[in-house]
Fold this sequence. Notes:
Distance between the termini: 60 Å
Structural class: alpha/beta
Amino acid sequence: MIFFSKNKIKVHPVLTGIIISSLILFASSSLRHLFFQSNAYDLGIFDNGIYLISQGKEPFVSFRGLHILGDHAAYILYIIALFYKIYPDIHWLFAIQAISLSLGALPTYQLSLQAGLKETQAQTLAFVYLLYPLIFNVNLFDFHPEVIALPAILYAILAARNNNILGFIVSIFIILGCKEVLSLLLIAMGIWLLIFEKKWPDAAIAILLGIFWFFLSTEFIIPHFSQAPPIAVGVYSFLGNSLSEITLNIILKPGLVLSKIFTLANLEYLVLLLIPLIWGLSWRHLNPLIGATPILFLNLLAENPQMKNLTQQYSLAILPFLLLAIISNLATGGGWFKHKKWIILWSLICFFALAKYGYFASKYLQTLDNWQATREAITYIKTKENVLTTDKIAPHLTHRPFLELAIQGREQTDLKLFKYVLLNQRHPGWPSSPELVIGLVKRLKNHPDFKLKYHQDDVWLFEQSSTLKQLQKAHKPG
């Protein structure tokens, strides 16, 4: 990918695109965080859990009330924690996410060449991948470990086609470690590899490991660490109160399922999902989408609108199979557009129409009126002791064992648990309100153990005079 010629270094266009994309994505997420637009849910959750792992502590995320493995059994977080051992900084997550999202362009390029496409076609598809709006948008929605699975899915297929069993197994290990639901994707991908690719060993590995991990993670790991069923049970509660009941009702109640599938919201979702790539799709070459069927079905079935858009991570795992369908179509001479410039032009039009870059000129500027005051208040928090703060400030303070959020439902939080209370009355974040913050400020002003440490532009910082040992005693259960 890097060539040397007469004392000149030439970098392959795809590698150049990956590097530029990684830098843009990293800068975008870092700037969003700097503007106090990142959230406790989910950036703060992962940063806190990974930090605790790196410090050799139990990764129990206090404001989530959950062990990090009780969320999605994402063991990949323990690997990420190795970076935090070098230096604990939230920007590792931004870098890992930016590189992972951009890196998918390389196997896309390699799979294109493998299918017999010309060099220019393969390069074009790599840039189509980078310009897909979901890539940019997901990068702005905090951090989610399943972004790491995106290039791993493409590499798994590349390894299978190259008869590289070791590379395939490594890719599978990465995919499974990102989120438990991806085990269903592997089962479906294994079926596709078996029927259409005739890759028997790889298919068997994907299916068996997918079944094994789905059963282990949903029946043992997640319930053990969360003391509750997997989160999906709540998402699909209209079908039952357990995974087995939900699965049974999907089969026994087709009318209910179809009523959730055939909706205008789902039609809009499918249009948004497909329109950037519609030029290269053909019904004759859609068999790769078998691998994406479980994720697509779950998204369509869900009532949660967040699972039906191009701004969040829920559709990421579908993208590799859409690209495979396009590659298969182009390999037979199909496709609405044949010339590189028309394909790139369409991708650019869709990017500018659907990517959320405009947030940097609107939504992300809303908190700048007291941005400096918030930054100054944070500098007064000198220790790793307990903090109560708002949703937007939380990701800047998650490198500590105990942190809670000043949000609805926690108005009567025991203030004695905290050494510091940092509140932004003007921008309280979700799900809170200025009234809630005002109520907490009044309680703190009347509390004998707290003193006002900083106040500027509706930003309040209170500090308790109690020692760390007293706080730990107050926090101890029972």
